[in-house]
């Protein structure tokens, strides 16, 4: 086992990518890495701006209305 305390961040990253590529193949490694990309913005602020002060009851009503519209189609 490698003593990771003596490796730089770049070396750890390189070894990690090599291990993932060996285990998952290049496409699998890329898909795995995509899960950890940092997003941007402030999710909580954005969510509050989009949803406002919606209540749980309003959410249930909206879901039920959507189900009824789907059943009519």
Description:
- The longest helix is centred in the first third of the chain and has 26 residues, at 9-34.
- The chain has one domain.
- The protein has 73 residues and is mostly helical.
- The protein has helices at residues 9-34, 43-51, 56-72.
List keywords for this structure.
single chain, 3 helices, mainly alpha, 73 residues
First-last Cα distance: 60 Å
* Mean pLDDT over the residues: 90
Query: How many β-strands, per DSSP?
Result: 0
Shape, per Cα inertia axes = elongated
Order of helices and strands: HHH
What value does the Rg take, in angstroms? 22 Å
What does the largest sheet look like?
Answer: none
The residue fraction in helices comes out at: over 70%
What is the total domain count? 1
Category by helix and strand content: mainly alpha
Count, helices: 3
* Percent in strands: under 5%
Low-confidence stretches: none
Report a brief summary of the structure:
71% of the residues lie in helices and 0% in strands.
Write the layout of secondary structure elements.
Layout: H1 9-34, H2 43-51, H3 56-72
């Amino acid at each position: 086992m490698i003593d990771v305390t003596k490796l730089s961040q770049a070396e750890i990253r390189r070894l990690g990518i090599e291990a993932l590529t060996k285990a998952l193949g290049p496409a699998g490694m890329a898909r795995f890495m995509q899960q950890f990309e940092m997003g941007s913005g402030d999710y909580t602020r954005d969510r509050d701006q989009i949803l406002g002060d919606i209540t749980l009851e309003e959410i249930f009503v909206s879901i039920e209305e959507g189900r009824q519209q789907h059943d009519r189609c």
